[in-house]
Amino acid sequence: MDSWIVSMMLGASLFLGALALLAFLWAVKNGQFDDEEKFLNATKFDSVEDLNDAIDKERKKEDLKKQNYRPE
Amino acid sequence: MNLSNKLLCSHCHLEFSEEVLIVDQTHYFCCKGCQGVFHLLSDEGLDSFYDKTANIKLSAPTTQYENSKNFNAPAFYDKFVKLNSDGTSSVSLIIEGIHCSACIWLNEKALNKMDGIIEADINFTNNKANIVWLDELLKLSDIVDMIRAVGYNAYPYDASLQEVHANNERKDYYLRMAVAIFASMNIMWIAVAQYAGFFSGMTQEIKTILNIAEGVLATPVLFYSGWIFFRGSFYGLKNKIVNMDLLVATGASLTYVYSIYITITEHGEAYFDSVSMIITFILIGKFLEVISKKNVADSLDIIGRHLPSEVNVLKDNKISSYKLEDVKIDDIIIVSSGERILLDGEILKGEGSFNESNLTGESVPVYKVVGESVISGTLSIDADINFRVSHDFEHSTLSNLVSLLENAISKKPKIEILANKLSEHFSSLVLVLAIVTFFVWWFWPHSFEESLMVGVSVIIIACPCALGLATPVATLVGLNLGAKKGILFKESEQLETMAKATTLLVDKTGTLTLGKPDVLRESIFDDFDKRLLYSLVKGSNHPISQGIFRFLKQENEPEEVIFDSFNQVAARGICAEYNNIKILGGNLQFMLDYGISSDLTSEHNLFFLAINKKIVAIYELGDTIKEGAISLVESLKRQDIETIMLTGDHEKSAQKVAKFIGINNVHAHLSPEDKLSFVQDLQKKGKVIVMVGDGVNDILALGAADISIAMGSGSEIAIDVGDVILLNDSLTSLLFAFKISSTTFSLIKQNFGISLVYNAVTIPLAMAGYIIPLIAALSMSLSSLLVVGNSLRIKYKWARS
Lengths: 72, 801
Hints:
Chain A is an all-alpha fold. Chain A contains 3 helices and no strands. In chain B, the strands form 7 sheets. In chain B, strands 19-31-30-29-20-27-28 form a 7-stranded mixed sheet, sandwiched between helices. At the A-B interface, helix 1, helix 2 and helix 3 of A face helix 4, helix 6 and helix 7 of B.
């Protein structure tokens, strides 16, 4: 067997596996699995309004970082 | 009442009959609280909350909260509010009254709407909220007010101390294990190809490719997942201890370096699979230990959490609430029935019974009048009193107890754990053997390369996987067995300590006895309507009445009648009237007061029932001994464990119980401090002590004992101090706890035996240079499987019996 094929297959599959592993590690670090209930229940209340709220929240945080968060 | 008249409250969805509801346009409310919340939500545009809770019953909001301004006190901020580097503040709150995910939604929504709140995040699982806000715009009290306004309550907790630390450690292990397991699984299938090639032959080129792939996978395992072992061995060496971590770290890294060398020189066999397997197995074992360990820092913060921090003080004819620390000597404090006394003092007004069993172990309530002193930590049963503070909080009985407890816990002896002792010797032995092997081979004479290979193979084959798994797997089995029987061990190491116990100390009230008076004998002189007695005792919360109430309920529960008049006389009894029948129930003194006499005396408490001034029945009540007490003492005696009774109660009642159960060694009339010094004296004589108790009077001794066991129904403080909790309070499960711990300990010893025998066979083979990769890999997995299998064997044996 051509050893090039072996090394290519090994490399490709390990690379793909590593991507999946990194995604999993990222999720654990971000606390995606910290709250199993929220994980399942939060989707129930998803709406346009909630998405807007989430954006507002992000904006508040951004403003704070720039040290100019002062509500009107 | 007609069922069709029942309507649901528009806010909490509880059912009420129409006439009690408040009608507000098209909505109905059960109380002002629900109405207020409903309107607030409509005004704020949050009424979609009700679409989400269509079928869920909520609790109606209560209104009598303490003043929220307390949350703004500097002392409070110091303790609970954390200042972040970017100028924001954060606090952790526990939110009360959450029923469903819609409640969380509402709270998050309401909080996020407030100006100044940067982030409000509520955990669905444990109802804990993490709030970040700008303190210059908003005070903590405003946040709490908002939570209360939408119908919930919030109180703060100190997150930094407890779980944050534990959670971070756990998360760290998850990450490291994920990497290790991923890499090991991939290495395994590459290894399959390698072993197949070892026997059927393969070109050096393919072999090198496989080696490189394995090497790439093993690198993160060794340096990321295995970092814990490098750290552990560094701290071990700093304290001049050769520990298992050192063996794992040197073994794995030597093997790693050796395998790289093999890969580059392209001859011989690389052992990258061993590197990742060793690390992965032992990491899993370590993780099992971490999750079954309790946080030491936790136990020191215990009492503060259980004490209400405020008291009602009467000043300038006004009642206001004060922080415990701010109360001064000679302040006047108001305590109503059912409340706990938090400061020492002298009664100025009022009288009544106090439950002092917490401190003294005495099961009968103590009656106190004006001029007598009250002790902090006791409970008012039916007394509404004003008392003058005689010591400030720092010098109160309760506070003294707290500092003594902290002292006792920090001085708790640590019994050396078998695994630590063994692994230290084992690790040094293996390292020495490897070095000796290397030199022997080198001087034999062989080439440097070959001697190094044999030396390294000794370390590889002495894989401490089995040794590392021996304790965690066995204790996990023990913890599971306990949990099934209602015995909670807080820390896995306690199983081993308990197996070495020599002395059992037991408290009397609440531990050996039920701790509440029960009817021992009923003597009826004249027929009477049981309903009258039942209704009479039901209305009182005195322990004696409660005892008779339980007795009647058990026998044949009568109906309740409504008395025309009902009057309780503290420490005497109850008098009531029903259809012109005068009913008196109480002690002898009460009967004499009404001119009724009786010549019956008893060592137990007597309850007389007189109807129309004639005694119709007498109940004898006493503390009854729990089931299984006698067999407990007997079987422990057979295991050479001595049982000693320590109690704060009187000599007489202590002796009686002890004699009945068969305990010869009794110490009565002990204060909490006496119990503590008793435990410490025994420990100085080299005894390993198990202490069982349930009350505040036991906590000092519990804190100092090698193993402390608390009853599940005991005081919260005792449960927190306890190492082991008996959820069902029974003495049979206490005996089980002893059995489980000794089984687990022998299991640990067996597991060590297995892994040592394995090493005794394989290490000489490795020293003689006979180890081929297949044997190394097989024996490694085999020894680990043997240890796990042996542990499971015990589990099934127990499950069957």
